[in-house]
Design the sequence.
């Protein structure tokens, strides 16, 4: 796993370091490897790290809140479905055909 991380660090255009103090080797060496190969560095961490002055962007926040926001522009968008629903009984909750006494909301 470490060899793969080193390879990706040396070939990355951008490295995002999320939730790490960058104090524990060998993982702490990966951002420097990326920088040595011309990558941009983004650090997301509550606390200051010794790499902050090398980073292009430093975000002081909870990684659980920030990472979904960073990923949002890259999520695939599903095209709207424009085909009519199939003929026959309509499916209810969890893919079950509603029983005769079951109440469901619908359009």
Sequence:
């Amino acid at each position: 796993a470490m060899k793969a991380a080193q390879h990706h660090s040396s070939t990355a255009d951008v490295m995002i370091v999320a939730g790490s103090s960058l104090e524990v080797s060998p993982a702490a060496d990966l951002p420097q490897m990326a920088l040595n190969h011309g990558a941009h560095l983004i650090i997301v961490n509550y606390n200051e790290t010794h790499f902050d002055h090398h980073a292009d962007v430093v975000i002081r926040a909870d990684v659980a809140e920030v990472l979904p926001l960073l990923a949002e522009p890259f999520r695939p968008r599903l095209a709207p479905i424009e085909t009519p629903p199939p003929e026959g009984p309509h499916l209810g909750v969890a893919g079950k055909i509603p029983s005769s006494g079951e109440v469901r909301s619908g359009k």
Notes: The longest helix spans residues 2-11. The chain has three helices and three strands.
